[in-house]
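Input record, target 12 of the design panel.
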C-alpha cells in the first residue's frame, strides 16, 4: 500500500533551517516509527516549506521524503492554495493509494481533500473549540484555522479521530469516522526514572491561556508554603503574547517555580526521568502527547477532566483527573500524590501497562493500515 503522508516539517514551522534532518510533531513521529516495522506499506512524506532544506531522500527503507518549496503567497493568505496545488502535482507523480493529512492547523488537511485521491485527515487539536475558548478575533490565525477545519471536515472522505471526544465533535459533519489513539514513541518507554531529591512537578505545554499555567501557579501557591517542591514549566511562548508575558513575570516572583523554555525531545525525556509527577491543567485538549509520554515513562499523571483526556486517564486507576477551573481540585490532586508516593507508584505502573497495550507504535500503525484499507475498499466499490 502506497500512502502519501502530509505533515509539516517542524524545521520550517519554527524557522530552524540549520538543522540537517527532518523532524515532525511527536504524534506523527511515533506513527512513522510504527510504519517502519510494517514493510507492506510504502510511506511518502510530502511537506511544503518556504525555503529549501537539507534532507535525505529516504528516512527508512519504506519511508520517503519529498519537500515542495512554496512561495509566501501560497500559504495562509491564499488559504493554502499554493501548497495544495504543489501537493496535487507531486501526487500525480507518486500515484498513492491514499492520502493522509496530519492536522487541521496548517495546509495538510485541506491539501488532502483537494488531492483527488482517496483521503482522510487526523484532527490533533480541535481548532474550532480552541478558537471558541480563546475568543479568537475575526481574521486571526485561530479564527481562520477554525473555519478551514469546518470547511474540510465534510469534504474529506473520513476523519481519523484520536479520541471519542473528537469523534463526537465531528460526527455530524464527517462522512466517516474512526477512533485510533496516537502512538507514543519508543524513547518514552525507554526513560529510566531517577526522581530528583526534592519533589519536582512537571508541567509541559506551550504557554497559552487555554493551557492554564497561571491558574496552576495560583492553585499551588498555598501548597508551596507547607510542602517542599519545585514546579517546572517547559513549553514555547509566543513573542509579545500578553498571557506569556504575565506568566513569565509571575514565575520570577516565586522561588518554587522555574520556567525552562521550549524543550527538545531529549530534554523532555530527561524531565520525565527526574519529575515526581506530571500535571496538565489545560482547559481544552484532545489527546495530549505529554500525557501519553508520561504514562509510557511510568510518571504519575494529574490531568484535567476535559476534552479527550478521560479517554486516556481513568481517575484513580491510572492517574488522577482534576477540575482545571478549581484551584482546590488541582491542589488536592497534587498534594495527594506528593504525600502518598506508594499511591503515585500504583497509578504510574497501571498507566505504563495501559500505554504498552494501547499506544505502542507498531500496533497503532497497524490499526492505521486497517483504516486505510477500509477506506480504499469503500471507494473502489462505489
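The sequence produced for target 12 reads:
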Amino acid at each position: 500500500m502506497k500512502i502519501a503522508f502530509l505533515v509539516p516539517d517542524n524545521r520550517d514551522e519554527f524557522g530552524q533551517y540549520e538543522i540537517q534532518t527532518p523532524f515532525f510533531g511527536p504524534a506523527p513521529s511515533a506513527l512513522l516509527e510504527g510504519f517502519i516495522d510494517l514493510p507492506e506499506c510504502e510511506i511518502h512524506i510530502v511537506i511544503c516549506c518556504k525555503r529549501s532544506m537539507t534532507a535525505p531522500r529516504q528516512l527508512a527503507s519504506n519511508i520517503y521524503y519529498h519537500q515542495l518549496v512554496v512561495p509566501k503567497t501560497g500559504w495562509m493568505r491564499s488559504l493554502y492554495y499554493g501548497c495544495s496545488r504543489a501537493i496535487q502535482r507531486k501526487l500525480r507523480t507518486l500515484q498513492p493509494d491514499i492520502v493522509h493529512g496530519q492536522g487541521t492547523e496548517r495546509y495538510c488537511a485541506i491539501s488532502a481533500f483537494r488531492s483527488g485521491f482517496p483521503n482522510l485527515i487526523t484532527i490533533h487539536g480541535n481548532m474550532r473549540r480552541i478558537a471558541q475558548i480563546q475568543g479568537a478575533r475575526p481574521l486571526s490565525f485561530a479564527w481562520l484555522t477554525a473555519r478551514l477545519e469546518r470547511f474540510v471536515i465534510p469534504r474529506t472522505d473520513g476523519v481519523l479521530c484520536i479520541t471519542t471526544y473528537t469523534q463526537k465533535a465531528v460526527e455530524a459533519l464527517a462522512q466517516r469516522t474512526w477512533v485510533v489513539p496516537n502512538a507514543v514513541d519508543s524513547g518514552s518507554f525507554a526513560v529510566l526514572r531517577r526522581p530528583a531529591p526534592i519533589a519536582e512537578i512537571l508541567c509541559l505545554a506551550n504557554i497559552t491561556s487555554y493551557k492554564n499555567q497561571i491558574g496552576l501557579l495560583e492553585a499551588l501557591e498555598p501548597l508551596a508554603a507547607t510542602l517542599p517542591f519545585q514546579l517546572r514549566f517547559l513549553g514555547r511562548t509566543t513573542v509579545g503574547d500578553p498571557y506569556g508575558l504575565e506568566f513569565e513575570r509571575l514565575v520570577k516572583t516565586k522561588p518554587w517555580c522555574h520556567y525552562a523554555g521550549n524543550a527538545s525531545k531529549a530534554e523532555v525525556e530527561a524531565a520525565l526521568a527526574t519529575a515526581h509527577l506530571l500535571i496538565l491543567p489545560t482547559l481544552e485538549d484532545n489527546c495530549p502527547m505529554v500525557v501519553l509520554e508520561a504514562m509510557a515513562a511510568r510518571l504519575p499523571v494529574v490531568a484535567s477532566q476535559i476534552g479527550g483526556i478521560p479517554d486516556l486517564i481513568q481517575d484513580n486507576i491510572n492517574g488522577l483527573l482534576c477540575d482545571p477551573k478549581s484551584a482546590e481540585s488541582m491542589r488536592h490532586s497534587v498534594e495527594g500524590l506528593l504525600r502518598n508516593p506508594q499511591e503515585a507508584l500504583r497509578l504510574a505502573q497501571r498507566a505504563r501497562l495501559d500505554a504498552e497495550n494501547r499506544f505502542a507504535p507498531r500496533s497503532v500503525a497497524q490499526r492505521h493500515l486497517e483504516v486505510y484499507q477500509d477506506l480504499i475498499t469503500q471507494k473502489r466499490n462505489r
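The first strand starts at residue 2 and ends at 6.
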